[in-house]
Specification:
Layout lengths: L3 E9 L5 H11 L3 E13 L2 E7 L2 H12 L6 E4 L5 H14 L4 E3 L16 H9 L5 E2 L3 H8 L7 H12 L5 E4 L8 E8 L3 E7 L9 H14 L4 H17 L21
Parallel strand pairs: 1-2, 1-4, 4-5, 5-6
Antiparallel strand pairs: 2-3, 7-8, 8-9
Helix pairs in contact: 1-7, 2-3, 3-4, 5-6, 7-8
Length: 265
């Protein structure tokens, strides 16, 4: 059967992040992608100039339309925008009970623009975290979710990851791209262990959509039947190569996109 993944996220009009990046990531892994759009953004590589939330009832309609017809192997959740949207997504997930849910707690765009209303953060934690197989915060997001300073050591990263686990998700991937040093180290933490996943840190400004793409690549692996660790390792290797190839593009005047199809051109 054709593996299918669903992304529930916002649209990026410049094509480098959000729904567009998610669908590209699914395709790069040979997975058919479906989508439920939570918000439209007027966005390019230099920033976000506008956000137009989709009514929660229509988010529900999209989710139900997809699940009622397609065999969804995994769900990726990205930009959720507001409390009403979060509630609609949580209700949909409870109704359809997908096996795998990868939640990227998108709070701030690569450009620095805020994408999640402050009052929605608590709803994200209480309504969606308990339904997630994996959450994928970067270092600043993990700190913000816990109202703590950004972790400065491996011990701090692991401690914050375990605190996030107490909110109900089954595993946490704390992404180290915002850290320092020659390597970018992500930590996959579940109830039994912590696995450090290191890759060379790549000097480039073209990192637009990195978090969206990584979480979608993980969801693609899960949709194909991979175990969590296998899916995360495969996605980490792929996004590292996509970042390394990003400078082959000449797209925009700010943080350009990663190269989702680096294997092909």
């Amino acid at each position: 059967m054709t593996p299918v993944a669903l992304t529930i996220a916002g649209s990026d009009s410049s094509g480098g992040a959000g729904i567009q990046a998610d669908l590209k990531s699914f395709a790069a892994f040979g997975v058919y992608g479906a989508s439920a759009i939570t918000a439209l953004t007027a966005q390019n590589t230099t920033g976000v100039s506008g956000i137009h939330p989709v009514p929660a009832s229509f988010v529900t309609a999209q989710i139900d339309a997809v699940f009622s017809d397609l065999e969804i192997g995994a769900v990726k959740i990205g930009m959720v925008a507001q409390v009403e949207t979060i509630a609609a997504i949580a209700d949909g997930l409870k109704r359809w009970a997908p096996r795998h849910v990868v939640l990227d707690p998108v709070m701030v765009a690569t450009s620095g623009d805020r994408l999640l209303a402050a009052e929605a953060v608590d709803a994200l934690k209480t309504m969606l975290f308990p339904l997630a197989s994996l959450i994928t915060p970067n270092l600043p997001e993990a700190a913000a979710l816990l109202n703590e300073p950004v972790a400065a050591s491996e011990a701090d990263v692991e401690r914050q990851g375990r605190q996030l686990l107490t909110m109900g998700c089954r595993a946490v991937l704390v992404k180290g791209g915002h850290g320092h040093g020659a390597e970018s180290i992500d930590y996959l933490i579940d109830g039994e262990r912590s696995i450090a996943l290191a890759a060379p840190r790549i000097a480039t400004a073209n990192t637009h959509g990195t978090g969206c793409s990584l979480s979608s690549a993980i969801a693609a692996g899960l949709a194909k039947g991979d175990a969590m660790e296998t899916a995360v390792r495969s996605a980490k290797a792929w996004i590292t190569d996509a970042i390394a190839a990003a400078d082959r593009f000449a797209v925009g005047h700010g943080h350009g996109p990663v190269h989702h199809f680096h294997k092909y051109y």
